[in-house]
Design goal:
Rossmann fold, 18% strand, 2 domains, alpha/beta, 38% helix, 541 residues, six-stranded mixed sheet, single chain, Nitrilase/N-carbamoyl-D-aminoacid amidohydrolase
Length: 541
C-alpha cells in the first residue's frame, strides 16, 4: 500500500502552531493567532495546524454550560474566519467547539478546516481519521482530534489501513492532553505504530503551557511513514515549527539526552506549571517559607527558574527547635539562587499563644497541638506577607506527606499553589540532584541530612513514618495503581501491617487533601479532582 506522494509536484510547507492559551481569553488568543498566521504566511506555508480547542483553550470544565461563554466562542470563531481571508491561499486546521450541532443542546469538541473564511470541513472528537479527509494543494489529509490511545489503536486497525486500501497522504493529529510522566514516550510509540501500520506520515500539534492544575507539554512533531521523528517543537512553551512536506529532512531526536529518563521533563513541567499559574492569575511574584529542608529548597529553586530570582521571597521562620544549620542552609540557598531572603523568628508568637491557651491546656500533656500551633503561626505570617506585597504564597509539601497527612491544615498547607503536591519525596531528591547537576544550588547538607519538621527536640520524619523509599513504593501501588493491600505487601515483600497502616493514613487524611492548595499535576493519578474519595469513609481493607 502506498499513499499519493508521487502526485505531489512541489513541497508543501506546513506550520505547526503550538499555543499556550489562557482559557476563555478570546481577545488575547485571537491576537496571538493573528501574529502566528502572519509568521506562517511569511514563511510560505499553505497548511497551518493549531491544537485541539485552540480557540478557547483547555481544560474547559463547566464553561460550555454558560450561554455567554458559548456566544463569545461563536464570535471568536467568526473573527477567525474573517482573519483567514487575509491569507486566502492557506488552509487552517483549528480546534474549538461546535455549538450548532444537529443534536439539540449538545456542545461538541470539534476541529474546523478553514480556507479563505469558509469552513470546508468539520470534524467531531471521536471520529476515525479516515472518516474526516480533506484536501490541501493536491494532498489528501486525514484529521484526528484528541489524544485517545483507544482511538489511535482503532485507526491502526481501521479498514482503510489494510493492504489493498488507499491511505491518505498525511495524518494530522491535534490534541490538548494534560502531561504526566511517561506521556511523551507513550504518545511517540503510538504514533510510530500508526505511521508504520498505515504507511503514512503524521503531523501532531498539541497545546503547551500551564492552566490551573494541569500542564500541557506541546512537543508537536512531524513523523515519517517509518515512525521516525523528523522535526519537533519545544516542550512546555508556545512555539512555531515549520516543516517541509514531503521533502525529507535529517531525523532528529526529541528525547532529552539526560542520564535519568524523564527528570528533565518533570522539572520543565513543574517550572511551566508554576510560571503560568502565577502569571495567568495576574500575579508576578511569590513568597514561601524556607525551612532549610529539601522540599522548600526545591520549591524555591523551581520558582526562581520560573519567575526569576527577583520575583521570589524566601522567609525563614525559626522556632526554639530550629537548628542553626537549618537557618544557615536557608540563607545559603537564597544566596545561591539570588532571591530575597528574610528571617522572622516565631518564638514571641509562640509565647503569646502559650499564655492565651494556658488556662485551657492546664493539666493536659503536650502533644501535636503545640507543634501545629508553630506551623499555623508560620502560615499566618507568610499569608500576611503575601497579602501586603501582592505575592502568591507557595506551599512546599510533597505528595508523600500529603498522602499520609504528615502536614498541618492552615499551617504548612497554606498557599495558593502546592508546587510539589504530585511529587513523591524520593522524586524530590532526584529533582534536587538534577538541579545541582552543574553547580551546587541546593546546599549539600540540605540534601544529605535526615528530613525533619523541627517542631520538637530531635524530631525526625522517620520517627513517625516508614523510610520514604518504602513509603513511596507503597503509595505508588496503593494510590496510583489502586492495588489491594495484600497484593502490595507481597509485591514489595513488606509486612502487611505496614501497608494497612499506610492505607489507613491515606484514608483518614482525605479531609486534609480536600482543603489543600491546588497542586501541579505530573502523574496519571494526582490527588484532587482526578481522585475523589468519600470523607469520612468507613470502608476498611
Amino acid at each position: 500500500m502506498q499513499g499519493c506522494l508521487s502526485l505531489v509536484i512541489a513541497p508543501l510547507k506546513i506550520a505547526l502552531i503550538q499555543t499556550n492559551p489562557l482559557v476563555g481569553d478570546f481577545a488575547g488568543t485571537l491576537q496571538q493567532i493573528q501574529k502566528q498566521l502572519h509568521q506562517a504566511h511569511n514563511c510560505g506555508c499553505v497548511l497551518v495546524v493549531f491544537p485541539e480547542l485552540a480557540l478557547c483553550g483547555a481544560p474547559l470544565f463547566d464553561l460550555p454550560s454558560s450561554p455567554a461563554f458559548l456566544a463569545a466562542h461563536d464570535r471568536a470563531l467568526q473573527d477567525f474566519l474573517t482573519l483567514t481571508t487575509r491569507f486566502p491561499r492557506m488552509v487552517c486546521v483549528i480546534g474549538g467547539l461546535d455549538c450548532a450541532s444537529d443534536q439539540e443542546a449538545e456542545i461538541l469538541n470539534a476541529a474546523f478546516v478553514v480556507e479563505n473564511g469558509v469552513i470546508q470541513s468539520l470534524v467531531h472528537k471521536g471520529r476515525l481519521a479516515l472518516d474526516s479527509v480533506f484536501r490541501c494543494q493536491g494532498l489528501s489529509c486525514a484529521l484526528i482530534l484528541g489524544e485517545d490511545p483507544a482511538l489511535l489503536r482503532a485507526e491502526a486497525r481501521s479498514k482503510a489501513c489494510l493492504p489493498g486500501e488507499t491511505s491518505p497522504d498525511l495524518l494530522i493529529h491535534i490534541a490538548a492532553r494534560p502531561w504526566y510522566a511517561g506521556l511523551r514516550q507513550e504518545r511517540e510509540q503510538a504514533f510510530a505504530t500508526l505511521c508504520r501500520t498505515c504507511e503514512t506520515p503524521l503531523v501532531y500539534v498539541g497545546q503547551a503551557g500551564g492552566q490551573g492544575r494541569q500542564v500541557y507539554d506541546g512537543h508537536s512533531l512531524v513523523m515519517d511513514r517509518t515512525g521516525a521523528i523528523r522535526a519537533c517543537a519545544a516542550g512546555f512553551a508556545a512555539d512555531l515549527l515549520i516543516a517541509d512536506f514531503p521533502e525529507p529532512v535529517a531525523p532528529q531526536s526529541c528525547l532529552p539526552a539526560v542520564p535519568e529518563e524523564g527528570i528533565a521533563d518533570l522539572e520543565a513541567a513543574l517550572v511551566c506549571g508554576l510560571k503560568d499559574y502565577v502569571c495567568k492569575s495576574g500575579f508576578s511574584s511569590v513568597v514561601l517559607g524556607l525551612s532549610g529542608g529539601i522540599d522548600s529548597a526545591l520549591t524555591a529553586a523551581l520558582a526562581c527558574k520560573a519567575l526569576g530570582p527577583d520575583k521570589v521571597l524566601g522567609v525563614a521562620l525559626p522556632s526554639p527547635y530550629t537548628s542553626e544549620l537549618s537557618i544557615q542552609d536557608a540563607k545559603q540557598l537564597a544566596d545561591n539562587l539570588g532571591c530575597r531572603f528574610a528571617i522572622i523568628p516565631i518564638e514571641p508568637a509562640m509565647r503569646t499563644y502559650a499564655d492565651l491557651l494556658a488556662p485551657h491546656f492546664a493539666g493536659l500533656p503536650e502533644d501535636t497541638s503545640e507543634q501545629n500551633i508553630q506551623a499555623r503561626i508560620r502560615g499566618n505570617i507568610l499569608m500576611a506577607l503575601a497579602n501586603k506585597e501582592r505575592r502568591l504564597l507557595l506551599s512546599t509539601g510533597n505528595k508523600s506527606e500529603l498522602a499520609v497527612g504528615y502536614c498541618t491544615l492552615y499551617g504548612d498547607m497554606c498557599g495558593s499553589l502546592a508546587v510539589l503536591a504530585d511529587v513523591f519525596k524520593t522524586e524530590v531528591y532526584r529533582l534536587s540532584h538534577w538541579i545541582n547537576r552543574e553547580r551546587e544550588i541546593i546546599p549539600a547538607s540540605t540534601i544529605e541530612r535526615p528530613p525533619t519538621a523541627e517542631l520538637k527536640p530531635d524530631q525526625c520524619d522517620q520517627d513517625d513514618l516508614p523510610p520514604y523509599g518504602t513509603l513511596d513504593q507503597i503509595l505508588r501501588l496503593y494510590v496510583e495503581k489502586s492495588l489491594p493491600v495484600e497484593s502490595i505487601a507481597v509485591a514489595l515483600k513488606v509486612e502487611l501491617a505496614l501497608v494497612r497502616d499506610v492505607a489507613r493514613r491515606v484514608r483518614l487524611n482525605e479531609y486534609k487533601r480536600e482543603q489543600a492548595a491546588p497542586g501541579i499535576q505530573v502523574s496519571k493519578r494526582p490527588f484532587g479532582p482526578d481522585r475523589r474519595m468519600p470523607s469520612p469513609c468507613g470502608f476498611l481493607e
